[in-house]
Amino acid sequence: xxxxxxxxxxxxxxxxxxxxxxxxxxxxxxxxxxxxxxxxxxxxxxxxxxxxxxxxxxxxxxxxxxxxxxxxxxxxxxxxxxxxxxxxxxxxxxxxxxxxxxxxxxxxxxxxxxxxxxxxxxxxxxxxxxxxxxxxxxxxxxxxxxxxxxxxxxxxxxxxxxxxxxxxxxxxxxxxxxxxxxxxxx
Length: 186
Description:
alpha+beta, six-stranded antiparallel β-sheet, Heat Shock Protein 90
């Protein structure tokens, strides 16, 4: 599957003059995420982020990377088989004036885009207390059938963010896939 790499790179282009402290564009796997997590942890400690901020950055970074693995429509194919563990996307962390910005982008199938849009639009209507309440309720409930995780990823990011999650879906190609860009401010 061909992806417009310029659109995938979009996640960091919109950061403009912010200081980029971490950026990766390519294929994601659990092993790659583990290596990136070590790098992110070291980098945010080095720049002197406060402990609660480091926890929020790290948690949101992991959720974004996991979402790429679970939902990216751009995967490695070998011998006619798709390796579900190798999915293409990008993630970027930047800082400006003590505000941290995490952004990711990846290609998603149209049906996944609809589910994500619905969840994200709902989250944007909630107060911080409502987000925390929904997070606790989700912890106690069963995993939604359409979810590839516990259904907590977007709630975790919304809970840790200082502003509502920002997102965009852009049509990509004739197959109906969408470029999904997500931004969290911490």
